[in-house]
Amino acid sequence: MQVATCVEAQGNVMRLVELFTKKQSRNHEIALWVRKYSSEFYRYAYVRVHNHEEAEDLVQHCFVKAFQAFDSFRYGSNERAWLYTILNNLIRDHLSKLSNRTVNVSLQDSQLLETLTDVKPNPEAQLSRKMDLEELEEALSKLPELFAVPLLLHEVSNLKYEDIAKMLSVPIGTVMSRLHRARKALYEMLPDHSRSDRDGKAPKTTKNTNREGGEKDGLR
Asked: 141 and 41 in one domain?
């Protein structure tokens, strides 16, 4: 009887040690992520909500959610993409409450402008480096969230197609299609493009085929 009690006590101690170790590991990991990703996540959140305080709150809430859901995180997987999924869901809910279906964009940061305009030339969309900050901000603000979100995640946050697809729960082909159409729509809204059209120098574009099954999105 005493032996059984001793074994049971040892088992309880081991479980407490395991829980303590697990908690310590979680605290350490979250603290590491906060130091590593806070600035990047704030930049992304601010681009989405166009408000400093709201962006800070969303990033803080993101790490709180990550702490609470830490047990669901699989070691060895992409923690950055996992955190972006949490942050993106929080931003989506936040914008939904505000009944705001378009992306509010502020491009006061010249580095962000450089990131967004650093797109490899292609026959369908070529973002001009000469554009004014206000012109690009206005053009981006007109993009539906359906297309602005993957564009920002890919061009600003440098996430891979696979990660964006998992975050948005869509096929990789859909992500690529939305990025293609977002770039094209953004390019066509830029003043430089309009001026070249009036001068008879409009670039050639390929016929747009909707690979998303007739998705209603407001882009042609």
From this structure: no
